Amino acid sequence: MYRKDVNEHSPLRVFEKSMHGGLGRGNIGVVLSRAGVGKTAMLVQIALDDLMRDRKVLHISHEQAADHVRAYYDEIFHDLAVLNRLEHVDAERADIERHRQIYSLLQHPKGPTTTSKILETVKFARDVAHFEPDVIIIDGFDFGHATDAAVDSLHDLAKESGVEMWISATAPGSDDRAVGYPPSIARHIDNVAVVVFLEAEKNTIRLRLVKDHQNKDLTQLHLRLDPHSMRVIDEDLPPAGDRTANPRQFRLFSGGGRGAEAAFGGAAEAWGIAETNFSFAGHTMLERRRGVVVLDEQELKKGDFSLVYASRRLDRILSEIPLIRNVLQIIWHQVSNASQVFVVGVIQPDGHVKGGTGWGAELARLWRKPLFVFDQNRNGWFRWSGTAWEIAHDPKIEAESFAGLGTQKLTEQGQAAITALFERSFGKRPS
In the chain, is it the N or the C terminus that has fewer CB atoms within a 10 Å radius of its CB? Predict the structure, then answer.
């Protein structure tokens, strides 16, 4: 079985479905139980599931040394690989390790300074290790001694960074079954989107959902931890073909300009998808105001491909276009951050996509990223096979980080194609 199939059949798909699609970027989820029940194992499985979807995970532990945490990952991954007969195990394990960083704060006692150490660790990972996580795991947070300001700062970190943050905490007991979390958590519950309680019952450990965003009717979780392997086991996982992708797990990278980019951004907002629009000072064609990231000169230079090289690739003199260097630079950022690229424009007889938009398609081809172009002249989607353009029947957004770019001269057919793309990928447009 390949990695994609393992994820498709993972019991954590039930976990996400029970939470109306999952935790979502910018939110905090809490795994709660008495000591020794299985919080660390649960967090590791959440992290492994994200790692196998090519998401970067930063794991911070107050409970274990880094080597012990790594051993948890190795053991649970080994069990998962054997159970699912995973192909290319060594390569998959190496890929997971590249996308994961583990830090231990075991030597730092829990208390009021805990949050500042967490923030320092995240900053170190970003600034020194150049590691930008999609998911932050915090194992062993002391809500009882945490100030309101401390928990606010964690919530701000999740929100501003667009990460999913999972935190484990110890509950003194499970007597308050109606509420499901102790007073130490209740004080901060407005900053917490999801709470899951691990509950020991005879020979098993059951998962109980006690908070699900703003939903009042909580879904019963048909999940438990195997007491021997501590692996999550599902009771009634629906077939993979019956499930649509969860838009909360996805992020659009675009430029927010008029035309196709604005249409991609509008669709992302309608479906509740996170949006990053790279821009620059003086960008007069910017229409989207959601998720705008204005790049400074140093950041822009990262995408500073030669205009001569780009002109040769596109067979067009790009220096004649106003602000073209800045446009090409932000297109570089859009495509480099994406694992799948969608373009709306026109494929010319020479195989290049017409206009400045063509640079995004060229970068996707150069970096061998899945590339789909909706040709407005031929009113259909095409996929780059690696050697030629092929007709693409009903493509879907499958990569959690995807780019949407295209022409300023968006036609009705182009707009309809973008809308249909999101409907195929995520279901009917939310009302």
Answer: C
